[in-house]
Amino acid sequence: MIYPNEFEDKLGFVQIRQKLKAYCLSDSGATWVDRMRFSTEVDFIRILLKQNLEFLQILEKGEPFPSRYFFDPTEWIQKITLEGNWLEADEFLNLAYSLETIIACKAFLNKSKEIYPELYKLVEPVAVTASLAQSVFIKIDDKAQVRDSASPDLGRLRKKLRDEQARLRKLADQIFRTAVEEKWVPEGALPTIREGRVVIPLQAEHKRKLKGFILDESATGQTVFMEPTEMLDANNEIRDLEHAEKREVIRILKELTDEFRLQLPVLKTAFQFLAQIDFIRAKAKFSQEIHAEHPIIEKQPELVWYTAKHPLLYLSLKGKREIVPLNIELDQQDRLLLVSGPNAGGKSVCLKTVGLLQYMVQCGLLIPVSERSRVGIFQDILLDIGDQQSIENDLSTYSSHLRNMKTFIQSANSKSLVLMDELGSGTDPNFGGAIAQAILEELLRKRVWGVATTHYYNLKLFAGQRQGIRNAAMRFDDMNLEPLYVLDIGKPGSSFALEIARKIGLPQNTLQEAEKLVGKDLAGFEKLVRSLEKEKQLLTEKTKKLERHESELKQSLTKYQTLSTELETRKKEIINKAKEEASNLLKDTNREIEKTIRHIRANQAHKQETQKVRRNLQSLTQRVEPLPVKVEKRTEGDLKDGDRVRIIGQDSSGVILSIQGKNATVQFGELKSVAKLDKLEKITGTVEREIATKLRTSGINVHEKRTNFSDTLDVRGKRVDELFSLLDQFMDTAILLGQGELKVLHGKGEGVLRKVVRDHLKRYKEVASMKDEHIERGGDGITVIVLK
């Protein structure tokens, strides 16, 4: 049971549905979003969450899951179902594209069935084959036109139609030239089409000089459009052939529709899968946006959450400030939580976070909590909440809250979750507090789970003394009088009413009078609460500081042990190497000395020979002396913004976007990377030849690339994320092959794709200029690139 009827509106789940719809690729996927419902079946919920998680993993890994041609087949299915009806050529083409997408999804999941088992189960019933889509492509081309080869009769009719049209044009040209020579034709006029027939424009005063039929005239009446008698038969023949062609095309489309009618069950199953996978993809995209996780799902009611975040609040604050996560625990021992604290301190957000995340899970959505959180399944979620910014709710009466409480008491049980905001408010505090305490007592007796917020003093005392309910407070900075939005479980919170009134500037005598009216007991209780809160806050800060120091100490110890081990290993390596070198040097020295002695004896110590031997010994001495350390400095000043560089020792190249100190931001294709300047080298002619040589030796045939390279790149219909990689690959190949002029075909449209292409190409310093193609060859639908 979900209560009240406006439950989704009050918690903001309607906004989540809207976000999911925005992520859907088709209307049929959006229909699944509308059909999403709260469930109490734990096994079904686990399947939904697993599907969501598996598709989230696909997105996070960047795997190429098909995401094009997610069309809604509802109208197609209706047309196919009706006997004698048929689909148009463009509908068949989109249908075939969708079938190809379904087959591609099936192939992907078949290959990854062990990694994504729940998604694979969805595709198992899909029996559609590639032959069904192929039967469309055989008869319909990619421009949504029925092919001449679709039937022998159609091919014959179209050939005859083309012949007749050519004959008619020739005849029209002859008559037109004669009329021009006779100066019957207005200046600059040409043969044109009226009512599907070729006509000749004539000045009105010469209309009697040419035999034929007037089919139309200009707005001024000075020009008439005449079908000459000689062209009448040809125009009639063409009109008959066009009708015959249309009848044959309809016959072919009907025949193709009949084939698909036999496959209706297969089609419905296939498109149901496509809509469902579109819906799951939308859920995964939303999960990715809010950084959702898969918590542990418990069969029985339980609520133990770590770092929970309100998804809509998180999105609204994204980029502005960090949202404070919520840690909350309800178990069999303590099922109710009473949250108190100052106004605007986050009590209502805490309540809404609990309700919204629990509802999301039971609708099959991953939620932004730690994956070690435990989420139980409730049979009911009952809500009583008022939006303080809503005039309608501001005007709500206390009786409406009591009606809600009546429903809670009558309907709630040990598997229900109740959420009550500002419990007891709206009436005399003495009576309101008493009634609220009685309601809590009844809910505890029925072992109901829930969260309630309040300012009432008696309810805080009740929660501190009664088994089954716990106090909690929204932490508040009493020095700066600012909320901290942190939930502390185990103690009540102060409303800080007097402090906030003092900050606003109420007169001191007014505040003193208020303190007297409040009474010593209540004021003392408030002071005690604040004192405990302050002590706990100091203790928490000290604990965090100790944990941080302990963590740093562990890291230092680990680092020291690692370095010590590495030094010891390195020391042994150096000593062993030194011993080996010394041994080899000693052997060389002994051999040289023995050789010297023999040489002196053989030459009887002549002065000249002795000097020669001394020189040899000196060279041996130099081998033993330590080599001077040579320090090389790399000049970095020759690198600047816009230079094409590569990382030393690698072949991939990029463009320097900016230089800051000794670091440079470099664009490598679609990726930006920060690299040290002394690790980069500028690409010159020598380096380019070196890269080309490496490419050849590594198996890349430059000659073959030149042979297969086309100087025109067609990016029409591409998404922006596909566009950049295609442009970079095209430009890199063109630069490698030394091309002079290139063309990018992006179409006209609204000019968005043209702007994206040109902005991206400005990053290449090899681009000398960019311009539109000649108007007769495509105009601003094509960008012509001239390379330096």
From TrEMBL:
InterPro entries from the UniProt entry: DNA_mismatch_repair_MutS_C (IPR000432), DNA_mismatch_repair_MutS_core (IPR007696), DNA_mismatch_repair_MutS_sf (IPR036187), MSSS (IPR046893), MutS (IPR045076), MutS2 (IPR005747), P-loop_NTPase (IPR027417), Smr_dom (IPR002625)
Record key words, sorted: ATP-binding, Coiled coil, DNA-binding, Endonuclease, Hydrolase, Nuclease, Nucleotide-binding, RNA-binding, rRNA-binding
Zinc-finger recorded as keyword: no
GO biological process: mismatch repair; negative regulation of DNA recombination; rescue of stalled ribosome
Residues annotated for ATP binding in this entry: G341, P342, N343, A344, G345, G346, K347, S348
Molecular functions per Gene Ontology: ATP binding; ATP hydrolysis activity; ATP-dependent DNA damage sensor activity; endonuclease activity; mismatched DNA binding; ribosomal large subunit binding; rRNA binding
SUPFAM superfamilies: DNA repair protein MutS, domain III, P-loop containing nucleoside triphosphate hydrolases, SMR domain-like
Coiled coil: 522-623
All copies of domain Smr, residue ranges: 713-788
Keyword Coiled coil listed: yes
EC number: 3.1.-.-, 3.6.4.-
Pfam families listed in its UniProt record: MSSS (PF20297), MutS_V (PF00488), Smr (PF01713)
Oligomeric and partner information: Homodimer. Binds to stalled ribosomes, contacting rRNA.
Family as reported in the entry's similarity comment: Belongs to the DNA mismatch repair MutS family. MutS2 subfamily.
Function: Acts as a ribosome collision sensor, splitting the ribosome into its 2 subunits. Detects stalled/collided 70S ribosomes which it binds and splits by an ATP-hydrolysis driven conformational change. Acts upstream of the ribosome quality control system (RQC), a ribosome-associated complex that mediates the extraction of incompletely synthesized nascent chains from stalled ribosomes and their subsequent degradation. Probably generates substrates for RQC. Endonuclease that is involved in the suppression of homologous recombination and thus may have a key role in the control of bacterial genetic diversity.
The name this protein goes by in its record: Endonuclease MutS2
Organism whose genome encodes this protein: Ohtaekwangia koreensis
